[in-house]
C-alpha cells in the first residue's frame, strides 16, 4: 500500500513544499514566536478557517514545546466566494467566541496571497482592543500581494501559482494532502 500514490497525486503538477519541509519550518516558526513572546503569560492563536487548520494544529503543538501557553480561537472569513482570486469584499462567516481585549493575538494563516483579506482582518482584530496582533503564515506569494500587510513570521515564499494541499483547497478538495503542490491547470479549467 505504501507504494501507491495518494488519492490526488495525479492532479498535482509538482510539489512546492514537502511534508518534511513543512514540519521543519513549523518547528522553526514556533521557536521564533516562543522567543519573541517569552515574557508573555499566554498567547491567543486565531486560526483562519478552513485553510489554516492543518498549520494551526501543527503550529500549536510545536509552540507548546517551547512556550508560552497558547489558547486557540477560530474565525472564518471569506473574500473568494467560489472564485480563485480575492474579491476584496470580506464577510465574517464565523466570528471569535470570546473577547480579545488585552490579549496577545497571533493570527495563524495558511497563505498570504493578495493581502486584501488579511489586511481587513488585522484592522478588525485591532479594533477589538487586542494588546498586540501579529501574523504567522506558512506561505506567502510576494508577487501577488496588492496590499502590504505586516506578516512577522513567514514560512515559505512561493511563486504565484495555484497551490493546494496542507489545508489549501480547490472546490473543498486536496486539503488533506500532507504537502503543498501546484494543481495541474486542466483540473480547475474543466
Automatic annotation (TrEMBL):
<dbReference type="GO" id="GO:0016757">
    <property type="term" value="F:glycosyltransferase activity"/>
</dbReference>
<keyword id="KW-0963">Cytoplasm</keyword>
<keyword id="KW-0547">Nucleotide-binding</keyword>
<keyword id="KW-0328">Glycosyltransferase</keyword>
<dbReference type="InterPro" id="IPR029057">
    <property type="entry name" value="PRTase-like"/>
</dbReference>
<dbReference type="InterPro" id="IPR005904">
    <property type="entry name" value="Hxn_phspho_trans"/>
</dbReference>
<feature type="domain" description="Phosphoribosyltransferase">
    <location>
        <begin position="24"/>
        <end position="170"/>
    </location>
</feature>
<keyword id="KW-0479">Metal-binding</keyword>
<protein>
    <recommendedName>
        <fullName>Hypoxanthine phosphoribosyltransferase</fullName>
        <ecNumber>2.4.2.8</ecNumber>
    </recommendedName>
</protein>
<dbReference type="InterPro" id="IPR050408">
    <property type="entry name" value="HGPRT"/>
</dbReference>
<comment type="pathway">
    <text>Purine metabolism; GMP biosynthesis via salvage pathway; GMP from guanine: step 1/1.</text>
</comment>
<comment type="pathway">
    <text>Purine metabolism; IMP biosynthesis via salvage pathway; IMP from hypoxanthine: step 1/1.</text>
</comment>
<dbReference type="InterPro" id="IPR000836">
    <property type="entry name" value="PRTase_dom"/>
</dbReference>
<keyword id="KW-0460">Magnesium</keyword>
<keyword id="KW-0660">Purine salvage</keyword>
<dbReference type="Pfam" id="PF00156">
    <property type="entry name" value="Pribosyltran"/>
</dbReference>
<comment type="similarity">
    <text>Belongs to the purine/pyrimidine phosphoribosyltransferase family.</text>
</comment>
<keyword id="KW-0808">Transferase</keyword>
